[in-house]
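Ticket closed. Logging final result for BZIP domain-containing protein.
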Amino acid sequence: MANAERTSSGSDIDEKKRKRKLSNRESARRSRLKKQKLMEDTIHEISSLERRIKENSERCRVVKQRLDSVESENAVLKSEKIWLSSYVSDLENMIATTSLTLTHNDGGGGDCGDDQNANAEIAVGDCRRRPWKSSCDSLQPIASFKT
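Final structure:
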């Protein structure tokens, strides 16, 4: 009887080993499938990220071009502001000089010819700064304004 118990207990052990091997195989198969799915998902995510990088690089290039354009325009505007500030300052000086001349001339009897000279000097000064302006073509020399 002891022999029969060993045989039946030996077959129980063999059955347990067989079940364990089968369970391990199934577990390994699930693990491989899980790993393969994870790999496919990772490859898909990499592809998606590479596409987004390409799109964002293009957007970045366009924005950089726009930035360069705006910076260039800003530099031109700053230069123009400096020129206009200088121009306004010169005009204010001319107005102040003209006002002094007119005040001086009014006190001494005044002459319309001096007022015309002052206006002509302002116009000539403007044409010296911007000779391309069309109003500069019609200017006559200052000497012709004197009477």
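The radius of gyration is 48 Å. No further action required.
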